Amino acid sequence: MSASVVIFDIGGVLVDWQPHLAWAPEMGSEAAAHAFIERTGFRERNARADKGARFADLAAEIENAEDRHHFAQYVARYTRTVQNAVPGTWALLDRLIARGVPIHAITNWSAETWPEGLKVHRRLGDVFGTTIVSGAHGLMKPDPRIFQLLCDSADVRPEDCVFIDDSPRNVEGARAVGMDAIHFTGAEGLARALHQRGLL
After folding, report:
1. How large is the average pLDDT for residues 61-66?
2. How far apart (Å, rounded) are the C-alpha atoms in residues 122 and 193?
């Protein structure tokens, strides 16, 4: 049977995430903020936050006092990093809803920054039937358990689902548990893939 349920990733698919913007104003330039991200191992630490770690604890690991102070401000400045939607994808989501397609989401997102993201993109709080936020469960894509958690929570079967993500690893993780999956590279390609599956 073809998939009848669509599961969205959020960051990189619906919401554009630019973490350097949390610090660029105070640091004087985007280049300085990018250097800070590299210097502090931000992406690795952020992945740990996506799995449940707290940013205050992650900041405490940083030796340089100034860098530690800046890192600790991340949650308070988070709304700066998610100001923009990914072009075109929300319109496709709305078309799916109009056709009565059940819509859910699985996102690798910190439990601390998720409420801040909702301040900017309020629809994220109510547009999905079920939303699994990794940081709230201590599970991250592509761990098969997070896909099963969505299925259990939404009362759907993996084989009934098509999962959309901008990460090839996460796409493969979804396929490994029996879902169909689409690697997102832009709204135009996503529209074609959904048409091919009879969902649009």
Report:
1. 97
2. 27
